[in-house]
């Protein structure tokens, strides 16, 4: 509103008042330092009694308080020494503030984002109360460790207030490479997990695998499924993908993993893809019912005329499925051959004996059983290369079987797992393409199964699950973490609109013959425009919690925590072990020969 000329005099009064406060902030400490220093000088030189507390005189008339001191002593004791101390204190305070700011990676708080009261359900008090209600084992505990209440996401920006997601939340994190998704989310979550942990990844050395292997081996057994030898892990386990394929639904899910690993969501509805997936599901069902290894399916695909799968299906009462399989086998040769060739391509990884060995019975090697894993404190590392085709299908199938086993165990235990199971699906769009993962998000959290799907971009998720699927996952996620490196302008603008607007005060000044007038108006402005979201600095992230205002977080990478030295040493040992295994394998005489 417009102001009268008296507004300028009011502004002048405010400036004078602020200037007075600034002067007092310097003069008062200086006067007190002069009094303390003058008395100290008198005591050191032994030239007279101590002066009474009169800081004003100490600053203005030191010769009256200490008449026994000479001019030099007065100058040094009541002028130079206090000035030096005052300057030193200022420098120390400035350095301490700068060091604190730089060490934590904090930036200026974004005005309009959530304050502590806006995200209270994610803070310590509420999280502790929620943990008691969700986990019967903690109900009567006198004290509860923070890691038992939820997964640390970071600190509320510019504060030391820890923000956590609870053990009924499901999360999606979208962060570009090298923006902290592994160091600040995956690794700290795994290290603090109170129950079993599942991790999918396409890297080993210098990543979550090496950073958490030793610490997790101290709380339970570590299982590593590494069919493409990313970590060159020794094969000390095998898993039977057909264990859950003894029903038509189970066999269909397994075939769906091979389909999803081979083609994008946009291609999965065409005739050849659906037909190839159907053949795989029928053959998986037959192999599972007859308790055969999954590699027998490749023999049946090579020779469509083999009647063994038809006989098995009929013998076990699946006559309708047998009829469908027979119709395909006896159909037009060009159609049959096209369908079978499509199925062969989807399952081609099983032709590799090194990959197949991880999913077929092995003497003297333990079988990984998902139903036992979900009641333990073990860790399962599932490793696969980007674009691993059938190998990544096995990774997705194993992760899916673990989550389904966890759901069944939760139902037997009264509805929830206690302690909860953490599933870190890092690089999910590359190595863990579970087709109905967006649908699973609607109920996993309520079972004590906590998935955290980590993607590099929103479009990456759309490519795997389609627009509708990715939108469903985004909507179902109760926690959404957005890190730096968002280069999609449409997604950045969507986030900007979700964060919302805030009121900004605008001041304008005009001059006329009657004087100077100032007007103040309010206008709406985006809290974070799209370009600011794109420019989020590394070490910070946006947090969207269901029903809460968007918050800015300072991430907490594991290497800045108190036990970082110990963890770094363990990670270095694990990385060296990977290198040693790779060198040993490369120097074998038969290295590189076809299996």
Defining traits:
595 residues; alpha/beta; eleven-stranded mixed β-sheet; two-stranded parallel ribbon; 15 strands; 49% helix; 14% strand; disordered N terminus; disordered C terminus; transmembrane helix; membrane; TraG-D_C; T4SS-coupling_protein
Q: How does this model look, in words?
A:
- The chain crosses the membrane at residues 15-35, 80-98.
- One of its GO terms (cellular component) is plasma membrane.
- Keywords: Cell membrane, Membrane, Transmembrane, Transmembrane helix.
- The protein has 595 residues and is α/β, with parallel strands linked by helices.
- Among the domains are: 6-104, no CATH class; 241-353.
- Helix content is 49%, strand content 14%.
- It has an eleven-stranded mixed beta sheet, sandwiched between helices. Strands 6-7 form a two-stranded parallel sheet.
- Strand 12 and strand 13 form a beta hairpin.
- The longest helix is centred in the first third of the chain and has 40 residues, at 6-45.
- The radius of gyration is 34 Å and the shape is elongated.
- The N and C termini lie far apart (83 Å).
List the helices and strands and how they pair.
Elements: H1 6-45, H2 55-60, H3 62-65, H4 71-104, H5 124-134, H6 146-149, E1 150-156, E2 162-166, E3 171-174, H7 181-192, E4 197-201, H8 208-217, E5 222-225, E6 237-238, H9 248-262, H10 271-289, H11 296-302, H12 308-315, H13 319-329, H14 333-346, H15 353-356, E7 366-367, H16 370-373, E8 379-383, H17 390-412, E9 421-426, H18 428-431, H19 437-440, E10 449-455, H20 458-476, E11 479-482, H21 489-499, E12 501-512, E13 515-526, H22 530-534, E14 540-545, E15 551-554, H23 564-586
Helix pairs in contact: 1-4, 7-8, 8-23, 9-10, 9-17, 10-11, 10-12, 10-14, 12-13
């Amino acid at each position: 509103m417009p102001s009268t000329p008296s507004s300028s005099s009011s502004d002048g009064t405010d400036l004078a008042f602020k200037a007075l406060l600034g002067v007092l902030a310097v003069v008062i400490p200086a006067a007190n330092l002069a009094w303390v220093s003058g008395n100290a000088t008198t005591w050191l030189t032994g030239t007279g009694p101590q002066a009474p507390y009169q800081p004003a005189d100490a600053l203005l008339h030191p010769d009256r308080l200490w008449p026994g001191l000479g001019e030099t002593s007065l100058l040094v004791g009541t002028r130079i020494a206090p000035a030096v101390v005052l300057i030193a204190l200022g420098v120390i305070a400035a350095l301490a503030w700068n060091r604190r700011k730089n060490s934590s990676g904090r930036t200026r708080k974004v005005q309009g984002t959530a304050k502590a009261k806006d995200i209270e359900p994610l803070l310590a008090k509420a999280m502790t109360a929620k943990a008691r209600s969700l986990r019967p084992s903690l109900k009567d505990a006198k004290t509860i460790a923070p890691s038992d209440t939820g997964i640390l996401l970071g600190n509320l920006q510019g504060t030391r207030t820890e923000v956590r997601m609870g053990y009924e939340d499901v999360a999606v994190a979208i962060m570009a490479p090298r923006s902290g998704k592994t160091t600040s989310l995956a690794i700290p979550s795994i290290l603090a997990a109170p129950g079993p942990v599942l991790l999918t990844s396409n890297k080993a050395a210098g990543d979550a695998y090496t950073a958490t292997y030793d610490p997790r081996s101290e709380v339970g057994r570590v299982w590593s499924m590494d069919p493409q030898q990313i970590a060159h892990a020794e094969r000390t386990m095998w898993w039977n993908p057909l264990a859950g394929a003894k029903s038509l639904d189970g066999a269909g899910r397994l075939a769906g993993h091979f389909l999803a690993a081979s083609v994008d969501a946009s291609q999965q509805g065409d005739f050849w893809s659906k037909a190839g997936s159907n053949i795989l599901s029928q053959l998986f069902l037959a192999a599972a019912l007859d308790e055969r290894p999954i590699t027998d399916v490749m023999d049946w695909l090579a020779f469509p005329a083999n009647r063994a799968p038809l006989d098995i299906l009929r013998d076990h009462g699946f006559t309708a499925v047998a009829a469908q399989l027979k119709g395909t086998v006896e159909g037009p040769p060009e159609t049959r051959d096209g369908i079978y060739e499509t199925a062969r391509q989807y399952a081609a990884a099983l032709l590799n004996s090194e990959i197949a060995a991880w999913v077929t019975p092995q003497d003297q090697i333990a079988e990984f059983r998902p139903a036992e894993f979900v009641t333990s404190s073990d860790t399962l590392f599932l490793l696969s290369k980007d674009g691993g085709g059938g190998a990544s299908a096995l990774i997705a199938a194993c992760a899916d079987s673990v989550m389904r086993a966890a759901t069944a165990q939760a139902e037997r235990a009264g509805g929830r797992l206690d302690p909860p199971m953490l599933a870190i699906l890092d690089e999910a769009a590359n190595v863990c393409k579970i087709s109905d993962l967006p649908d699973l998000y609607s109920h996993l959290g309520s079972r004590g199964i906590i998935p955290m799907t980590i993607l590099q971009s929103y479009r990456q998720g759309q490519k795997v699950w389609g627009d509708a699927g990715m939108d469903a996952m985004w909507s179902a996620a109760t926690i959404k973490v957005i890190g730096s490196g968002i280069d999609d302008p449409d997604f950045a603008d969507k986030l900007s609109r979700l964060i919302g607007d805030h009121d900004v005060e605008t001041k304008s000044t005009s001059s006329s013959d009657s004087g100077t007038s100032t007007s103040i108006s309010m206008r709406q402005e985006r809290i974070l425009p799209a370009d600011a979201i794109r420019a989020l600095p590394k070490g910070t992230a946006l947090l969207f919690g269901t029903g809460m205002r968007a918050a800015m977080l300072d991430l907490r990478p594991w290497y800045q925590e108190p036990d970082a030295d110990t963890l770094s040493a363990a990670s270095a040992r694990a990385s060296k072990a990977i290198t040693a295994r790779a060198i040993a394998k490369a120097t074998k005489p038969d290295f590189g020969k076809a299996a």
